[in-house]
Amino acid sequence: MPWPGLGRWLNGEIGFTMEERMSGTHRFLRDLPPEVRAGAELPLVFVVRWGHPRAAAYLNPLHGDFMRADLEGEITAGGLCEVAPVKGELELRYLKDATVRYRFEFAAAGRRWRYEGEKSDIRPWNLHRTHTTCRGRIVELVAAPPAPGLPRGAKGVVEEGAGTIAAPPQMVRRSSAPDSARSCRDQQIDGEPLSESVVHFDLAQLPRFLASLRLR
């Protein structure tokens, strides 16, 4: 075989990872006691490593994981957290709606949060702008409300602190984190947005980004 790794590739045994850094600011939409007030604009930086254990599946338009990668890394959001671990997903939706979507969750200030970001209107002639700009928001995750009449201990009930909370499937928004990271806390829904953000990829980092590619 001309390339020793070709067999592993064809068998779907080769995966990959890459590392990306985005930085900018986020503006608070509401107070976050005791110090942060609505309207405050503070730095936001996240460094994430994303990839797929089977590159052949990732690049196959007929596969359910086409251009969808698991993501993990760290986020520093001024006023909220410093270097908090994150887990979630990155989806390259070039053929669907010309976007790139980031979804990841993290814990900070005793609560759970989700970052939702999107690079939009991505075209071959504007990559220098659209593929380097991500607009997003941080949303607080809250426990799903109790289902009327659902008894204690019934299926769909999860523990939250000292109380028991029922999470009916039709009201639950699943975590964007990989299955291996999911737990009973996934029975949560979006609460109020905390902040809106704009972060950028510095083109000066492009060589480092490309060099971060690792096969596994």
Structural write-up:
With 216 residues, this protein is mainly beta. The protein has one domain. It contains five helices and eleven strands; from the N terminus they run H-E-E-H-E-E-H-E-E-H-E-E-E-E-H-E. The strands form two sheets. An eight-stranded antiparallel beta barrel has the order 1-2-3-4-5-6-7-10. A two-stranded antiparallel sheet has the order 8-9. A hairpin with a 2-residue loop joins strand 5 (99-108) and strand 6 (111-119). The radius of gyration is 19 Å and the shape is globular. The two termini are 20 Å apart.
Secondary-structure topology with pairs:
Elements: H1 6-10, E1 16-28, E2 41-52, H2 55-58, E3 68-77, E4 81-93, H3 94-97, E5 99-108, E6 111-119, H4 127-130, E7 133-143, E8 157-160, E9 163-166, E10 188-200, H5 206-211, E11 214-215
Antiparallel strand pairs: 1-2, 1-10, 1-11, 2-3, 3-4, 4-5, 5-6, 6-7, 7-10, 8-9
Q: Looking at the structure, what is the overall shape? A: globular
H/E topology pattern: HEEHEEHEEHEEEEHE
The low-confidence runs, each spanning 5 or more residues with pLDDT under 50, are: 155-185
Helical proportion, percent range = 10-25%
Strand percentage = over 45%
Number of helix segments?
A: 5
Question: What distance lies between the first and last C-alpha atoms, to the nearest angstrom?
Answer: 20 Å
Biggest sheet architecture:
8 strands, antiparallel, barrel
Number of domains: 1
> Residue-averaged pLDDT, rounded?
83
User: What is the spatial order of strands in the main beta sheet?
Assistant: 1-2-3-4-5-6-7-10
Report the structural category. Answer: mainly beta
**What is the CA-atom radius of gyration, in angstroms?**
19 Å
**Based on DSSP secondary structure assignment, what is the total number of beta strands?**
11
